[in-house]
């Protein structure tokens, strides 16, 4: 019984570190896609658009990681590999969704995200990130 508990705790640590790492990569993606430094936009300028987009991105990645773990293979190694693979796939697809939305709309979406007043484009972009995450989750399960 103690062996099972320790093994479960170890797996939780590994998957937790993977999840945090993937969320950090998602943060970097948003930082690259938007002009300026994301940390300044959110924490110093209190930009609601950048905050909304990052929140949707982080929740989307968390849902992908959750789904990958929840439907994980019996083999721990395969479960880790699938979690990393689907997490990175989700991040790439979120970036692609941002670029496609930017291409389809007037102006530059990154600049819209950086405007200090709330903008509907930020809500649409956030929804596309979250939507991509749900699509990836459906593919996992």
The count of helical stretches stands at 6
Measured on Cα atoms, how large is the radius of gyration? 17 Å
Share of residues in helices = over 70%
Helix-strand makeup class: mainly alpha
Biggest β-sheet description: none
Total number of distinct structural domains: 1
Average residue pLDDT: 93
State the low-pLDDT regions, or none: none
How many angstroms separate the termini?
30 Å
Number of strands: 0
Quick structural summary:
The chain is an all-alpha fold.
Outline the secondary-structure elements.
Layout: H1 2-33, H2 38-44, H3 48-70, H4 76-104, H5 109-114, H6 120-140
Give a written overview of the molecule:
Helix 3 (48-70) packs antiparallel against helix 4 (76-104) and helix 4 (76-104) runs antiparallel to helix 6. The two termini are 30 Å apart. The model has no long low-confidence stretch (mean pLDDT 93). The longest helix is centred in the N-terminal third of the chain and has 32 residues, at 2-33. The protein has helices at 2-33, 38-44, 48-70, 76-104, 109-114, 120-140. It is mainly alpha-helical and 141 residues long.
